[in-house]
Amino acid sequence: MSEPAQTDPAPAKPRRRRNAPITVDLGAMPRPDYPNFAFTIDKRAADSRARLGRLRTPHGTLATPNFIFCGTKASLKGVTPDQARAVGTDIILSNTYHLMIQPGTELIERMGGIHRFMGWDGPMLTDSGGFQIFSMGHGSVADEIKGRRQTGRAETLTKITEEGAKFRSYLDGSPILLTPERSILQQRQIGADLIVQFDECTPFHVEKEYTARSMRLSQRWGDRSLAEFIRLEDDPRYAGRQAMYGVVQGGVYEDLRRESAAYTADRPFFGTAVGGSLGGTKQEMYEVVAMTMPMVHPDRPVHLLGIGGIQDIFNGVRQGIDTFDCVSPTRIARHGWAIIPGVAGQRLNIRNARFRQDGEPLDAACGCPACAKYSRAYLHHLFKAGELLAMELVSLHNIAQMNRLLRDIRSAIAADTLGAAERFWLGDEAPADGRV
To answer: Is 82 an annotated catalytic residue?
Structure first.
């Protein structure tokens, strides 16, 4: 006889006056102690905020700084988890919003959680779904460092309220209300080690007044996320298995970033994620990160949401960022771009005709399956012939190169030679300011 299906008790309703913000009293709740998690800082650089750390999770310990690869729909496109692990990958992420729509977080839980479902045994992170408020509500109109890719998909966000964000499913048009409570429950059901509070990622083009209102809404959503996280710690299915990050918002405004950083530092989050609008250019992004990092909790792991260009990583590491994520390594691979240190833009387009008769590997120092066995000429041929193997091999190469980059960075921090590593990877694009 099958066991009856488990149901989740309804969360305690937050206090609310008519037309007032929804608030919860975290002081009346126990503080989460994250028993199976720890973050240890082993070294701080003398000439920057760069640091070496260890992030312990139930699925392994992660050396930091590190890069989190995007398996948005429980899949690294074109690459198996075993292949990713074989080229040095330590941690991946999946997206709550997309998994909620397909196949559904309840099914993932019934299948044993995301690790078993997709065959990955290492640490994982899920985002909250909040970025979709940005990408689906504003992404097609914002000149924003995070939002320049055009998908052609119709906007599906319908309304943001105190309660949450209302969407239409991009699969069937059915209405969806994503609240802080639902986001946390779904992340619990997915089962990633590291999860993120629900927030609104504001775009660059909105006014400061909107950014401030949104930031304070995200703070109330953060309290509600914590309350739901704490409530579900009493459930044996979830107790001790996850740790939550709070998100620093505030757009490009220093006073708002300071207020938001103080909020996250005051709340019992395990880690800090730097999110929200980071500006419209790389330089603005660097300025926002530089102004924010001295304000965050100094002893918690810090993740930079959605940013992972090679130059961006060096800049972030110098500011004290511990982890990064970005879809670009596998996305650019599918278009023929291979990551190579020292060249312009740190990548080559293997589709270019000049590689048609090039018998050299992509990078003789790499050692990935693409570089160990195949020539640039062969990879050029595969792309021209439309063979799927081309995308698989260059994806593996780019994953291996990103892992090599972060290993080089960790070694350089340990040896106080971060400037030399930066010059090796960025070539002529490295800062000419005498760093060593």
So the answer is: no
